[in-house]
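Q: I have 375 residues here and want to know how they pack in 3D. Can you give me a structure?
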Amino acid sequence: MEPNSEKIAEYRKEISGILTELEVQFEQLGKILARFASPKFIEAKEMQTRLKAIEVDVDTLDMKISEIQQAKDKSEAAREEIATIEQRLSSIEMEKNSLFSRIGVIAYEEYAAGSLGEEFSLLFTSVTHQNTELTKFQKALKENELRFVAAPFFEKMSLRIKRNKLKNEIQKLDSAREDLFRKAGKQISSSDYIKQVKSRNAIIISEDYKRISIESARLYEQMENRKSEGQKNEEFLLRAGITGSIEKKIEELTKNRNLYYTNLQVLYIDLAHFMLDHPEELAKVEEVPEAANNLQHIHKLERKQKELENKITQLEAKIRISELETIIKNDQDRVEHLNGQITMLTKQIQDIKETVSQNRKQIVNLKKIAGKETE
């Protein structure tokens, strides 16, 4: 690309940027005039009326989109927080069960040693019964193992089957006893019985239980608040007519809002152009302080645009001159070439004419000779 062509491309790009900025400035000017100007012409007044109506539509849609988005965000945040709280509450329940089991075992050991009163007997009746059963099965398992060592081969199979059954029963009893300790520990921890347990570990466990119980109560209250907040947002979304995808609804509203705003931008620009194109109105525009900067910037941009367009015109003229000079040079070269051909052809014509003249003379002489023979 030639230097001048490159410069023209640069100027056109700069002009494109200026035109974009001018659109922005005209739009801003139109916004100001829509609020403060008092146009004389009915056309401008009608533009202002339409602008105000569309502005209300845009503001209404902006508010609705914002409210829906906020309700969506708050609802999602509430759900996420509730899920986090539920996870923590589940963890607390596991901690509590572990504490209950430990308290149950400690209290049972003190009860079995006679350190606790008979009021604990009801709590540990089932445990005592389970211990009796467990001892019975453990004794039976030990006897089975002793017999298995000395038993003949054919008896070992039945002893092995019985041993497996005893192990399963012991495992079930261990599990059931763990549950009984947990239930007893829960009753002890949530009553005054805990004060009677003497073990220092029981006191520490009791303090841990109080701490996580307070945290659990706080989390339950927090979860209920989040559920209530989430419910309110869900109800708002329903009142807003959203039964399907919230994102799709926001997208639909945003599309409508952008259509309104595009019309608004066109009217702002039209109003600004109208006021500037009418001298009677221009004076009123200049009276609006907020419009002064826009007008100054618009005039500056327009001068810059005109300056660049003049530069482009000058460069295009230079390019055209160069093109025409090239055409003229080519035409002159063709003329010289044709003149050379004319000179050559003229000589060829002269040679042909001389040849024709000589041939005619020969014909005359030959005719004379031919005539004599005829006589």
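Q: Anything worth noting?
A: The chain has eight helices and no strands. The radius of gyration is 54 Å.
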